[in-house]
Amino acid sequence: MGKNNFDNKRKYERIEMSIKVNCIDFIASEKIAANSRNLSEGGICIATDKPLSIGRHINLVFYLPGKENFKIIAEVKWSKKIEDKLYESGLEFTDISKRNKDRIVDYISQKESNKKDRRDSKRIILGIVVNFISAEAKIKNISNTGMCITSNELLPESMTSEVMFFLPNNRYVKADGTILWREKVSEDTYDYGIEFTKIDKESLSHIKKFMLESDII
User: With 90 as the cut, is the pLDDT of residue 29 above it?
Assistant: First the structure.
């Protein structure tokens, strides 16, 4: 089945995420290291350094934050070359327990709910540069609880890093932030939702004062 046909059959909610996936090809008895691109209750898209044969059944083992390991059998539905030594493949789950499916559905629902909660909070649009993990990014918007940044770097979800930046009123902010969600907005650009997990009172006061001056709160 071609990729377009597989895409047309998509009926499950999926989330963009990057986690390590261990794959075992039953026929070749070969272990393949991969990273996920997105996940749904019905399947997963992974990136590997070699193409996967369409129709092959693969034993997948991966871990979701806050969950136990998953062991699932999936069939390769499509595989395409992205660049030199980088391939993406779409796999459909063919043997998955009800418990594992329920855990995936619960994880996706929780991630979508967290993303919506952050977006519903009051925030102000910005365009200032910030360093997160080792990537240069721009802050798109900010609130008392976190911010949305955009970057050309593909960063792993659930990663925590120190962030430091100056607000437009020249107030300095320093905090620890964790990536809650990621969205691909163009071929080489990603948006990230960052939750402040640790922020000192002075930095939080600077953000609140800046938002107040901007008639946001």
Answer: no
